[in-house]
Amino acid sequence: MTPQRPALFPVLLAGALVLLTVHTLGRFIYTPLLPWLVEDGLLTLRQGADIASWNYLGYLLGALLAIRWHRIAQIRRCLPWGLVLHALTTLLQTQASDPDLLAALRLLNGISNGLVFVQAPALILEWLVRHNRASASGLVYLGVGAGLLLSSAMVGLSADWLQGAARWWPAALLSLPLAWWGWHRLARLDTAEQAAPPGEGSPSGQLLDRRTTPLFLAYTGAGMGYILPMTFLPTLARLQVAPDSFLINGSWLVVALATLIAPWLWSRLGGQLGDKHALQINYLIQLAGVLAALLLPGATGILLCALLVGSTFLGTVLLTQRLGRSLQPHQGPRISAAMIALYSVAQLAAPWLTGQWLGMGGSLHSAFWLGAGALAWGFGWMFAVPGPGADEARR
């Protein structure tokens, strides 16, 4: 009698809610909150930007910790503590009226985000591989798209009756039940340490080899390419479209709506075409989005950039994670953590380089050529990644 296949929905929902909690209620909610915190006098705009950088640094540190604690047994121990750290720091942010204290809390919150954002999908992917369902792994990222809309709505609905540090309360209160239920479900997964593939002897512990190095180099371009429109697109819209345009305040909403379908779309395309070929298409579409903002100034370029980048950047993450694991199946969580850490470095570098360019008299519009060049770099390196046979073998 054929054993019954395990239900995917509860596991994927748990993963999606965990990512929603740490990545949107932890990280991205700061984007719509910042103008209100500045208006309330809690922060200056410069302080707000510095605090955002501390959070990005924490995200990088969390991903680096995930490289150290990459084994399944370690993930099981660390993941709940990462969620506890998120919940605790978010609660403390409701009392943080001092910018230095808020910066320290955002650093710690970023560490929890980086750790959980790596470990939760890695744990779920190992479980899916165990049950021959790896092609569904990208669906956990649906939580990020849904969370972008949810966090924006929470800030907007509470804007008139909360003030200052108290504006963090909706995120803090919602984080507690979501984190608890998500981990309660993930803790029950029947995962095991990944053994070496038959006939291969002792696998290499190297992260960079002739198979994975091109993928790492491509992913560096992805991190630098997507963060420019994700950081500066609303600002660019204010410079290029009419003051009464929907895109002045709506470009971020367009990005958020576009992300909703992205995990399902790219997970499905990866299953049909192979992750490498789907990823090549993904890079081209994302590059087209950045080029639209460069070559079609005004509302058309802004709208196309929001749609094309919003509908692809999560696909880049999930396809790269799956492809990386297929190239080194004996250390899937470790290579996932290393890629997220590299992605984080690129995210930190791109805004800094943009600031240097603006300081030399360059325009924000022309700075987008950095993003276009980075995505072209990534697309080029994808041709050196091993062919579809490598990632088809895991299915």
TrEMBL record:
Superkingdom of origin organism: Bacteria
Keywords tagged on the record: Membrane, Transmembrane, Transmembrane helix
Protein source organism: Pseudomonas linyingensis
Transmembrane annotation, as ranges: 51-67, 79-96, 108-128, 140-159, 216-234, 246-266, 278-295, 335-354, 366-385
Record's subcellular location: Membrane
Molecular function (Gene Ontology), one example: transmembrane transporter activity
Topological relation to the membrane, as annotated: Multi-pass membrane protein
Transmembrane recorded as keyword: yes
Full protein name: Predicted arabinose efflux permease, MFS family
GO CC entries: plasma membrane
Matching InterPro entries: MFS_4 (IPR010645), MFS_trans_sf (IPR036259), Sugar_transporter_CS (IPR005829)
Pfam families recorded: MFS_4
Gene3D superfamilies membership: MFS general substrate transporter like domains
